[in-house]
Amino acid sequence: MAEHPGPVTSKDLSEMMVTNPVVIRQTMAGLRKQGYVKSEKGHGGGWTLACDPSTVTLQDIYAALGSPSLLAISNRTESPGCLVEQAVNSTLQQTFNEAEELLLSRFGEITLAMLIAECHANATARGNNSQCYGAS
């Protein structure tokens, strides 16, 4: 959206990301609430970036999206009766927490501008004239 020549519709975004437009609208609602994007209704409307990409990090985006779970794995049983499973769960939970902290820390180091620059590098490498939007 940072370089798209105009607003991008939920339908267009959903096609680029291979998902449903409803998922895009729900996701963008959290980003709009934080002021990262804005939307215009009607013909010619859609979503546009409303922030400075050099000041917004992946951690900011993560928080705007409600801080969803980062890891899809967890303990099999919350309160197991087996002492071995209790020990394993405790160690795994500590490890999961540390991994999540590391991910969030790294998210805080990555700005949207950095992602845009990487997109340009990838597009140039593919001979795409540095155009990132609509590329797959």
Automatic annotation (TrEMBL):
<dbReference type="InterPro" id="IPR036388">
    <property type="entry name" value="WH-like_DNA-bd_sf"/>
</dbReference>
<protein>
    <submittedName>
        <fullName>HTH-type transcriptional regulator YwnA</fullName>
    </submittedName>
</protein>
<dbReference type="InterPro" id="IPR000944">
    <property type="entry name" value="Tscrpt_reg_Rrf2"/>
</dbReference>
<dbReference type="Pfam" id="PF02082">
    <property type="entry name" value="Rrf2"/>
</dbReference>
<dbReference type="InterPro" id="IPR036390">
    <property type="entry name" value="WH_DNA-bd_sf"/>
</dbReference>
